[in-house]
């Protein structure tokens, strides 16, 4: 058993995240979808790794997050689990895995914990999911809420639009956030809402809020790994800050490889395996005998 010491490498849990909010220490969160991205994010000291259903778009090339399945989410979560040692590992429940029956929703949530090693599941929706959150928490499944612009409701919302812009919508968002907290959610993601509204909710909640397109007053910030690194193909949303253009780095490396292969510059002799000297000599002797002209 290891004892949590509060140092940089100490394991992050739901309780340490709550303590961070109480100490007003900003929480960092990034998505990861496979073993290398998980290792890079974890080793950078990011607090929360989220296996987001955004993988449907950035990893699998779907138009939205709706088609990704339980099987695919579990597969990616397992890979991420192998790469994460310190961060709190959250897995997104995919569309329709928690919308149909309570029994099925609980079973699906439990699979993320039991079969894939997630430490919490994230579900979208506020007040209307509060009862389900309560049941999950009762079943020892930590839950992260997600309100505001909830991508799984893209059709119901009529597109990806900033939410919470009217007084009525603001009141509903506040109800949603409080209902999730009362139901036992350990974190609440606020996506695509005005910063003033996110600030109000953050002040009102005891549990940490994690913002994405929700301004700087949230208790923490999350971005999609591929957005931050410039690995996406569509123009990024307003809130995305690109910290690197890894897409261009990869593109240039691929072109250089193609040119080297075509010009015979790759592989070089130094990049080739060689026979031991004696075997080579024997092989040459055989070849010489074969080609010797009989007299
Ligand atoms: O799927 C995802 O990546 C998310 C984050 C954007 C919060 O839900």
Brief description of this entry?
This protein has 295 residues and is an alpha/beta fold.
Structure description:
The chain is 43% helix and 13% strand. It starts with 13 loop residues before the first helix and ends with a helix. It has one domain: Phosphoenolpyruvate-binding domains (TIM Barrel). By secondary structure, it is of the alpha/beta class. Bound molecules: 3-methyl-2-oxobutanoic acid.
Order of helices and strands: HEHEHHEHEHEHHEHEEHHH
Enumerate how many helices there are, as a single number. Answer: 12
Shape: elongated
Strand order, main sheet: write it out. Answer: 1-2-3-4-5-6-7-8
State the domain count: 1
Query: What's the Cα radius of gyration?
Result: 25 Å
Helix content: 40-55%
Low-pLDDT runs of 5+ residues are none
CATH topology: TIM Barrel
Heterogens? 3-methyl-2-oxobutanoic acid
List the helices and strands and how they pair.
Elements: H1 14-22, E1 27-31, H2 35-43, E2 48-51, H3 55-58, H4 70-83, E3 88-92, H5 102-114, E4 120-124, H6 130-138, E5 143-148, H7 154-157, H8 167-183, E6 187-191, H9 195-204, E7 209-212, E8 220-223, H10 225-229, H11 246-263, H12 277-291
Parallel strand pairs: 1-2, 1-8, 2-3, 3-4, 4-5, 5-6, 6-7, 7-8
Bound molecules: 3-methyl-2-oxobutanoic acid.
Which key terms come to mind for this protein?
single chain; elongated; eight-stranded parallel barrel; TIM Barrel; 12 helices; 43% helix; alpha/beta; 295 residues; binds 3-methyl-2-oxobutanoic acid
């Amino acid at each position: 058993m290891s004892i949590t010491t509060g140092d940089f490498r100490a394991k992050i849990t739901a309780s340490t995240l709550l303590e961070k909010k109480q100490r007003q220490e900003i929480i960092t969160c990034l998505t990861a979808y496979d073993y290398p991205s998980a290792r890079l994010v974890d080793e950078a000291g990011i607090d929360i790794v989220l296996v987001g259903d955004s993988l449907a778009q950035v990893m699998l090339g779907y138009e939205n997050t709706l088609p990704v399945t339980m099987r695919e989410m579990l597969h990616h979560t397992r890979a991420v689990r192998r790469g994460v040692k310190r961060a709190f590992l959250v897995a997104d429940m995919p569309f329709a895995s928690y919308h149909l029956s309570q029994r099925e929703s609980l079973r699906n949530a439990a699979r993320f914990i039991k079969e894939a090693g997630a430490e919490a599941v994230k579900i979208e929706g506020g007040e209307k999911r509060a009862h389900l959150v309560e049941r999950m928490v009762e079943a020892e499944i930590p839950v992260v809420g997600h309100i505001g612009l909830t991508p799984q409701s893209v059709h119901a919302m009529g597109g990806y639009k900033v939410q919470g812009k009217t007084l009525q919508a603001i009141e509903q968002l506040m109800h949603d956030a409080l209902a999730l907290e009362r139901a036992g959610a350990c974190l609440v993601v606020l996506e695509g809402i005005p910063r003033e509204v996110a600030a109000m909710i953050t002040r009102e909640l005891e549990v940490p809020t994690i913002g994405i397109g929700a301004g700087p007053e949230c208790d923490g910030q999350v971005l999609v790994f591929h957005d931050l690194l410039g690995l996406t193909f569509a123009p990024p949303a307003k809130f995305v800050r690109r910290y690197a253009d890894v897409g261009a780095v990869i593109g240039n490396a691929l072109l250089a490889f193609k040119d080297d292969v075509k010009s015979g510059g790759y592989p070089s002799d130094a990049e080739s395996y060689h026979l031991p000297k004696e075997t080579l000599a024997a092989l040459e002797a055989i070849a010489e005998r074969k080609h010797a002209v009989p007299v």
